[in-house]
Amino acid sequence: xxxxxxxIQNEFKSFLTAPVVHLIAILQPTLMYLLMSVIMVVPTFEMxxxxxxxxxxxxxxxxxxxxxxxxxxDYIELIPVDDPSPEFRQxxxxxxxxxxxxxxxxxxxIDSNLVKNLRNRLTAALLVLWNIELGDQGITIHxxxxxxxxxxxxVYFGMAMIPLAAYLSAAMIGGYLMAQEFENGTIxxxxxxxxxxxxxxxxxxTRLMITALTGAGILYLSLGLITxxxxxxxxxxxxxxxxxxxxxxxxGLAAGLLTRSTLPSFLIALASAFAFWLIGSGFGxxxxxxxxxxxxSRLTPNxxxxxxxxxxxxxxxxxxxxxxxxxxQLIGYSLAMLFMLMFIYLKQVLSKDR
Amino acid sequence: xxxxxxxxxxxxxxxxxxxxxxxxxxxxVERGEIFGLLGPNGAGKTxxxxxxxxxxxxxxxxxxxxxxxxxxxxxxxxxxxGYVPQETNLYQDLSAIDNLWHHAALYCQDLxxxxxxxxxxxxxxxxxxxxxxxxxxxxxxxxxxxxxxxxLMHDPEVIFFDEPTLGVDVQGRFALWEYIQxxxxxxxxxxxxxxxxxxxxxxxDQLVIIDHGQVIALDSPENLKAGMQYDVVxxxxxxxxxxxxxxxxxxSVQNITQLEPGCLRFELENADTRTEDLINTITKEHQLYSxxxxxxSLDDVFLFHTGRALRE
Lengths: 354, 312
What we know:
By secondary structure, chain A is an alpha/beta fold.
C-alpha cells in the first residue's frame, strides 16, 4: 500500500513536468462553458408581448401562468411593448382576427430548444384560453408536465460538458505524460523496474481518475454557480463518470505509448474528446436527433453517461431507453480499454522482441 | 555452494534483421569487479548491455546475472541491478529528492530505509545541498552523480554504467571515478561501457574489446598492454625525415604517422633494446632533438585490435 501511495504521489508530481498541459486539460472545458454559456447560449428568452394589459393580454398572461411557464429572467422574460416593431426578433401579439383570439408570433434566430419549449408552452396556454371561451362546455385539462419546471438550456449544455471535462483531463494528461516518458528516456526506469506493471498502471490510472474528477468538479461548480441548478447527488454524478474516465485514461495512455511523442498524443486526446462530445449528446439528448445520428451517438461513451446523469439534474427524469444496457455498455467499454492498455503497455514497454 | 558469478554470457547471438549485432559472444564478470566494455561505435556494446539487462532477448545462448536467468527470472535480476544509461534519464523538472523517491517507489523492496538511504547517497555524491533544486539547474557532472545515486538507491549488487563521464568536466570525472571505486570496495560489481581509454585504464579490472559483435580481446588493462608486441617510438628531427620507410627498412617499423612537421610516431618491436641502433640510423643524416620510447597505451591496444578505419 505504501508503494502504491508513493507511486501515486510521484504521478502527481509529474504536474511539474507539464503544468501548461495540465491547466489546459483541466480548465479548458470550464472556460469553454463559461464563454459559451455567457456569449453563445442565451439564458433568457426575451419575448416582447404587444399590449399585454388589454383584456386579451391579461387572459393570455393568466393562461401562461396557469401552465407554469417559467416567466422571468431565468428563462422567458415577457417584455410589454406597444407595437410589434420589426426590429424585435421575438414578438407575440394577442389580438383578434375574425372575432377569434389569435396569437401572432414572430420568431427570430434563437436557440432551437428554447423555441420548441416556448411553442409547447404557448400551445398549452392557448388550450387554456380556448377552454375559457368554451365556458360550461369546456373540457377539463389535466396537465402532466414532463418536468415540474423548465430548466435553462445552459444546464443541459453544462451537464453535457462535464463528461468532456473528465475525458479531456484524463486523456490529454495521460497521453502527454506517457509520451514524455519516451521523449525524456525515463520510460527505461519503468522497463527495468521489478515492480508489477499492473501496479504501475493502476497508480497512473488512479492519478488520472483523481485529476479528471477534479476537472469535472470544477465545471460542475461553475455550472451550479452560473445557473443555480445543482445535481441532486453530486457523488452519484462523479460515480457515473468513473467508467468514462477509465476509458479516456486508457485511450490517452495508449496514444502516448503508441506514438511516443507528446504532440500527436496531445492531438489524439483532444480530437477524441471533442468528437465524443459533439457526437455524444453534447448539445441535446441523442433521442432528439435523427435515428442514424442517435445510433452513432449511442456508440460513444458520452451518450450513456449523459443519459445516466440526466435524472440528477432534471428532477429524477429518466431518459435512458435501457438504463441497464447503458451501464453494461460503459462497463464493457472500460474492460475492453483496460485490456487494450495492458496489451499495448506489454508490447511497447516490456517487450524484449524489438 | 559456490557463489555465482556476477554475469555470465554464454554463446549469445542477437540479430536485427540480417545484421548480426552480437555474434556467439561469451564472457563472464566476477563479483566485485569493475568490468569495461570497449569497442568502436556500432560494435554492439549497447546491444550487449540491453541483452544482459533483459531489455532485448537473445536469439541464441544464455545470460545469467548473479545466477538468475535473465529471461525467466527477470524480476529477481531487476531487484539486484542498477543502470545508469548514457543519456541521463532524470525528470528534469523534479528535484533530486523527488527523482530518488520515484526510483525508490519502483525499485526498493523495503521502503522503510529509503529516507536514510537517500540522505546517505546524496551526501556521498555531494548533492545534499542541492537536493531540493530542480534537476534542470544541475551541471552535467551533477546529473551524472545524481543518476549514479539513483541507480544505487535500491542497493544493487551489479551496476551498469554507460559512458560514466561523457560530457563531464575533469573535476566531475575524477569525483565519479572515486565514487565508483568506493562502491567497488563495498563489494559492488560495475559494468562500464566507455570510449574513454583513460577511464577504462584507470577504473577497470577487466576489459573486453568488442567489434562486430564479437570478443576481440579480454583481459586486464595491464595484460592487454603487455600483450602488445611493439613499443611506441616518437621522434623529433631536423630536417624532417623524407622517406621513413626507407630509412627504417632494417627495423621493420609499422604504422608510421607524421604528427607534425619533424615529428614521427611509429611502432617497433623491442624498441628499448634497439635504441642505440635507432639513434645512430637517425643521426647519420638528421639532427635528433628528442626520442621517446613508450609501452603501448590502451589507445594503441584498442587501435591494434579494432583498426584505424573510421566507423559510422
